[in-house]
Amino acid sequence: MVKTFNYFQPTDIRFGCGRVKEVGDIVAQFGRRCVLVTV
Question: Residue 20's Cα: distance from chain center in Å?
Fold first, then answer.
């Protein structure tokens, strides 16, 4: 039997040339440690 659950995954996708310059400001809101995954 499957137990019930809620799943919440907010997403903020930033796309475009030169957007990498914004990374510092974006990740600063998460504190001193974060994981950045790129493809």
Answer: 13
Using 50, 70 and 90 to split pLDDT, how confident is the model at 1?
confident
HEC string of the chain? CCCCCCCCCCCCCCCCCCHHHHHHHHHHCCCCCCCCCCC
CA dist., res. 25 & res. 36, Å (int): 13
Helix residue ranges, H only, the chain: 23-28
C-alpha 15/C-alpha 33 separation (Å) is: 23
* pTM summary value: 0.47
Residue 22, phi then psi, degrees to nearest 5: -90, -5
